[in-house]
Amino acid sequence: MTLADHHLSTPLLPSLGMLSEGQVRGLDCVFCGVSLSSAEAVDLEARDIRRLGEPGPWSPRACRACADGGYVDRLLVSSFSACRDLPPTDQLLDLYLRLRHEVRRRLPAVEQAARIAGRGTLTWHAHQRIVDAANDALNDMADDDPSLWALALRCSELGRRLRDLIPYPACGERC
Q: What gap in Å lies between CA 18 and CA 30, rounded to an integer?
């Protein structure tokens, strides 16, 4: 599944290869990895996956904090530390795709706020600045195979744009 194919009403889950066995089996939060009790577990949208070459259902689960939006805080921490820690390529690419998805989920709410404010007003300009900066970060794909450092810088920039978008609801929350 590509990023473009994924519906914007739900957060993009980490790639299966990034998850522990407990996260895949629904024993641990798919976002933060904390062990779940049945009382605190939130069932996420079921989906079909391929494991070991065989198709099958997957019902990921999250802790209440992550399901209520706490996963965004983890994305921000990871994006701001990407240049300092320089994670392995697969983890960095996974982070990049999840950041792009989350920025795309929140953009419609900012665009709507700008429309409501009315073109040319100070409020419109404030919203439009956020829209333009987010679109610039999303469109920053100069080459198909960026270096690890370039990918880390893109993650940091997407993290900054996501931080600007936090006050706006994600698509699916009130979009």
A: 10
Distance CA 133, CA 126 (A): 11
Cα(30)–Cα(62) distance, integer angstroms: 5
H helix and E strand count, the chain: 6, 4
| Rounded (10°) angle between helices 148-165 and 89-117 | 30
Rounded to whole angstroms, how far apart are CA atoms 158 and 80? 9
Q: Which long-range contacts (CB under 8 A, 24 or more apart) does 140-147 make?
A: none
Rounded CA gap, 102 and 118, in Å?
Answer: 26
Residue 5 banded pLDDT, cuts 50, 70, 90? very low
DSSP string covering 55-124: EEEE--EE-HHIIIIIHHHHHHHHHHHHHHH---HHHHHHHHHHHHHHHHHHHHHHHHHHHHH-TTSHHH
CA–CA dist 96, 91 (Å, integer)? 9
Q: Is 172 left (phi over 0), alpha (psi -120 to 50) or beta?
A: left
Interval 83-138: pLDDT, tens:
888 888 888 999 999 999 999 999 999 999 999 998 989 999 999 999 999 999 99
